Amino acid sequence: MKDYVQWIYHGEQSQMRDNDEAIGNEDENEEWINEENVSHNEIHDMLEEIGGKSQANQETTSSNNGCDNLSESEAKKFEKLLKEAECELYLGCKKFSKLSFVVKLLHLKVYNQWRNKSFNMLLELLRDALPNGETLPKSHYDPKNMLQCLGLGYISIHACKYDCVLYWGEFKDRQECPQCGTSRWKIEKGKGKKIPHKVLRYFPLKSRLQRLFMSKKTSTDMRWHKETYLDETNVLRHPVDSEAWKEFDKSHTWFAQEPRNIRLGLATDGFNPFGNMSTNYSMWPVILFPYNLPPWKCFTDPFMMMSLLIPGPQAPGKDIDVYLRPLVDELKELWSDGVETFDASTGECFKMHAAVLWTINDFPAYANLSGWSTKGYMACPTCNKDALSQKVRSKICYMGHRRYLKPSHAWRRSMKFDGKVEKRLKPKELSGDDVLQQLDLLNTYRPGKHSNNKKKKRLPIELNWVRKSIFFELPYWKSLKLRHNLDVMHIEKNICESILGTLLNIDRKTKDTEKAREDLKDMNIRKELWLQHDDSSYTKPSACYNMSEKEKREFGEFLKCVKFPDGYASNISRCVSADGVKLAKLKSHDYHVLLQRLLPIAIRGFGNKDVSLALIELGHFFQRLCCKTLKRDDLEQLEKDIVIILCKLEMIFPPAFFDIMVHLAVHLPREAMYGGPVQYRWMYKIERFLCKLKRYVRNKARPEGSIAEGYIIDECLTFFSMYLTNIETRFNREDRNADGSSNKEEHVLDIFSKSVRPFKGEYDAIPKKDFDMAQWYVLNNCEEAEPFLQEHKNELLNQDVVNIEEKHREHFSLWFKGKIMHLSNKENSMCIKKLYPLAMGPDVRGRRYPGCIVNGVRYHIQSRDELRKSQNSGIVVEGYHENEVIDFYGIIVDIIELEYIEGNRVVLFKCKWFDLRKKTGMQKDKNFTSINVNRFWYEHDSFVLATQAKQVFYICDPKLGRNWRIVQKFQDRHIYDVLEMQNSKVESDELHTTDEVYQDVSMESNMIDVSIEDMPIQLHRDDVDSITLDSSAYELKVQTEHEVGYNTEDSDLEDDSIIEYISDLDRNEGTTTIDKYEDGDTDDEDDIDF
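The structure corresponding to this sequence follows.
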């Protein structure tokens, strides 16, 4: 294709760079290191690494480095780029070359999302401002062409209108589809330019993988998993710890021997590029990402590579294999042949191979990629032919989780579930060979959506297979432990939505419909809940899971009063209406927070204890499953727990509640063992990436073209930005809650070297009581002052002083000052010099702040929190109480900075500590810790160092009353519990991402013990009024729904359209809100009335 420029420079020796005249003589080269030539140096370093002439490999000859020599045309392209790098911006300009200035300008355009018109206007203004002879480009087209010398681009491949074939390879020159006969072009007559029906944009993978090794800034990280990371037995912190990774290494030892061989993940999903729900349009990007990288870079935006952009307006559906053909062919080459790649960190070439470990997608896309239909009786791909499904009225439900219990378990014989004894065993786990044996029985699948392509009814021996996936062409695919991932994000969202809809009896959301009650009658179970019929009406008894009107209002008020820490979640209180009876615009992440944090707390005060206990255990299950660090032993326990939890839910909720998404939860712990922590395998990051692609759409008549062009420019400048200094990039951008750098000078005490970034404050005299208390706390918590504290205490002991602790605290500061002054006159040691500012004491005046940032966490004083929708004043500190280490919970009431001589400072929090004495001050129930916020203690010891505090937040306890709050602990999103080699270090400019979902760092030891006792469930609620339905209207409604339902169900078994539990909004939007600071469109929004 003439519009595609292949990426060709991956560190090879450039013939043009071998000529010294091309880069100037030694005297001219000295200018590169002058401070005023920083921009020259940045581009110079980048070109050196691209051309393979860096200082690290100057002595390596092109004949021995293992890479092929460049062709003459390729060398000319690079020579052109070199000339641009040496061309002055204007005559006499030493600070910028033409290339360095244009790169920074273009970086600003992309980074700040400038329009092309505004960029052109800026260029015009700069041309007028700069001296005559300037070399600025005329418009945004010129710098784009300049950067194409680096080889970034894509290939446009025409496709059949009905997704039958690609006009590629053997069909490249065909003018009509060889399968359906449809013309390739939209316009066949006249002199106008022929326009193809569909165009696939293909972004070649090899060059993009080679680019990871081209730069020293990323090449070392690509070996992190092997050379830096320390594996710990039975602990999962990264995909390298997973069974899938380790089994793959055992099966393909030649691949594992080279740590630079790349393990990839593949993801895809559809989204509407217009953000207009009235427009039915769905395009599907295919995204790849390397897992070799450390956690803070792995699965992040700069290292995601779009490989395909499948055009709309219709989703490819089960014909997606047609569009995957170029990618799969390239993946086969990368596996078998590899590609010569230059490693900038070692200065040598090696043969790089790559393999896809698994795919990541939502459940409908799971069907597209795997070839297994995710609908019908065998919708679960893991259970395969042993699915536990059954037909109810116009619906298929997935009950029968007693199959996963031990054969001797008492619940297998109980009639409380479906009225039957459960004798079936747990479904068998299939190997890759087992799957291939099933696929060998399939008839040949013919792709395409043309009307002549008649859909064939599946035979029973074909099970739920629609076709054999194209991924099985990869030689290693059948040996993979985990080929396709179940998406935890969507499973959480759908389960929580079903729970809320059923608890609150929301119209069109509840699973407790009239037909669900008829299902109970058909199954002859739970007679208390059957519809009761008389001459003129039907009565629907209230079930144990239905909330009363009062409970619904209390639930709404509970959500209204919830406040989260800065950036933890969106403001869910805004989703509650003013009267407290409606929820609106809930996002996927809102459901994540509701299910794991809020619903278990809100349900504690619910009338039926069996219902609340089961839902608390379910929320705790997902909270533990989503930890950043997992343990195999705990996952095995979770696998047992989720079976018990689902069995409990089967005794509570109607069969219609158990759609396929509820059932899939039973497989999540096993997949975590196979694939590692969920944050490397869920859709949050993918949907945020889709949101970014949506912002590239400038020409709505050509959305795919706009996205492709915007993406390659952003991709190129992402690579450039690793080399740019003195300008903000996505690699050096300071986090919103960055606290600055710590003072690590040798002559400064550690207590003075802690970094705290306070907000704007004011000088104020500190009350004497607070001043003495704060000064004592600083002295008592300074490690270097410990010997002097002990010496003073011993002196008091020798003097037989009464109330030693009180006297020690009262007089130590004055004694310490005199001691250090005396020692400083006698000796000049470094220790005394460091202690001198501390001994002289702080200024009686200090600064008082309304808030500050410590260790990347934002803290506010209580009075500031009261005026905001976020909660940042709650803290927890470890301390001694009656010779026992406990957690002290409190709230910050003041932030004080003490100033010492020589510019030393200490920031302290003044807190109110909640009284934690049992019964009256603190109560523990399961894993909930409730605190009475009206009772305080330790008022004489209210200060703590800002750096000692950890943030918590408090949520109203609906069970214990208005004065009680439940403590919620959490970890900052930038904390990674990773063990590394002693000689390894993290670069100071590591990428910081702010789109992480808040997760617990590790699975806590105080795990909830899921009870397995037989539950004496009272199915009917006497304190909630039953619902009365008009008899004639109800019978007509049931008859209509029954007929439509059965027709829908029959077609549902064969049709691959989107199923009911995935909303149209979710499928079309395809984005998500991670925290309240994210921009762009969001995904599914639900209006819930209750």
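Confidence is low (pLDDT under 50) at residues 1-35, 53-65, 985-990, 1044-1090.
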